[in-house]
Amino acid sequence: PVQPVLIGFVIWVVLMESLFPYKGGDYYKADKILRQIGFSVLIIILYLPIIYFGFIFTYTFSQNLTISTARAYISLNFLVNNLILVIPLWICFFLIDRFLVPYFPLSEEDVEILSQYNNQNNADDELDDFVPQPGEFYNQLFTHHSLEEDDHTIVFLLGKVRFYLCTRCTAMIFGILTTIFLSSIAIYDFKLIIPPKIALILVIILPLFPLTDWGLQAVLIRKATTISRLITGFILGIAMQMLAFMNEYQLLEIIIVACYFVILVILFYFRVQVRKKNYDKEALNDFIAENSGHSDNSKSF
């Protein structure tokens, strides 16, 4: 069965790590390595009593295997398996630091030097909407949108760096992981197998919500919001995980996925055409406004 104490360990780690949150740069500088590793070890050791007394056994014990022996074995197994991960976890933070160093915010001295340079050279901030600023990591591989469309993204503070991610895709991944977790509990703990017909219905219906939300925005009928992107992305994640339960409908699965891709391509084509038309209209209006200004100036002379 699902052990509440193991789920509680995740909550425990989150609470303890929140006391000393990752700030970025400490691991890269190799500053206070022993304290960083020791704190991770301490988190594990402090949770050992909860594992020892809180683990739930579903089988009977004999003289050869007493409940105290079983609890000691579970606790040692928990201790060893988690201690093995401490060093790789530290190395992971070290690599994250190395990756994020170029994107760290400017120091106070750098900000002062940059402001003096801008004042001397009359620099403007017109490019701020198109170029990521110090302290920001904005890559279209993760956002799928240019910086001027950053309202389509959500921001995670990773140490000192603001990390931008596509809102709908992030919610979709979270929906997949949540569905995997809940379906595993239903299958292995309660023997509740999701019927293929139910999975088929969900795979057909659920993608309509994100497709409608994205499609209406694509053709500029209705602008999606962060909430709508989160909800529809999560729904899409559930639908994607339901594909794993369509064992009896593999041919229908291929047909459904293909149909949705065709609809997506058609909507994307209309999106390109609508935006191109709008860009042409804006360019024409700018041209007319510019020429009308020149004609007014020539008449005044």
Characterize the structure shown.
The chain is flat and about 95 Å long. Helix content is about 65%, strand content about 5%. Strands 1-3-2 form a three-stranded mixed beta sheet. By secondary structure, it is mostly helical. The chain contains eleven helices and three strands; from the N terminus they run H-H-H-H-H-E-H-E-E-H-H-H-H-H. The protein folds into two domains: about 5-100, no CATH class; about 170-290. The protein has helices spanning about 5-20, 35-55, 65-85, 85-100, 110-120, 140-145, 165-190, 195-205, 210-220, 225-240, 250-300; strands at about 135, 155-160, 160-165.
Overall spatial form: flat
**Structure class:** mainly alpha
**How much β-strand is present in the residues?**
under 5%
What's the pLDDT, averaged over the residues? 83
Beginning-to-end CA distance, first to last residue: 88 Å
- Number of domain units: 2
Count of beta strands: 3
Helix content: 55-70%
Tally of contiguous helical segments: 11
Largest sheet: 3 strands, mixed
Low-confidence parts, pLDDT < 50 over ≥5 residues? none
Secondary-structure element pattern, one letter each: HHHHHEHEEHHHHH
Radius of gyration from CA coordinates: 28 Å
Spatial order of strands in the largest sheet: 1-3-2
What topology emerges from the helices and strands here?
Layout: H1 4-19, H2 33-54, H3 67-84, H4 86-100, H5 108-121, E1 136-137, H6 140-143, E2 153-158, E3 161-166, H7 167-188, H8 196-205, H9 208-218, H10 226-242, H11 250-300
Parallel strand pairs: 1-3
Antiparallel strand pairs: 2-3
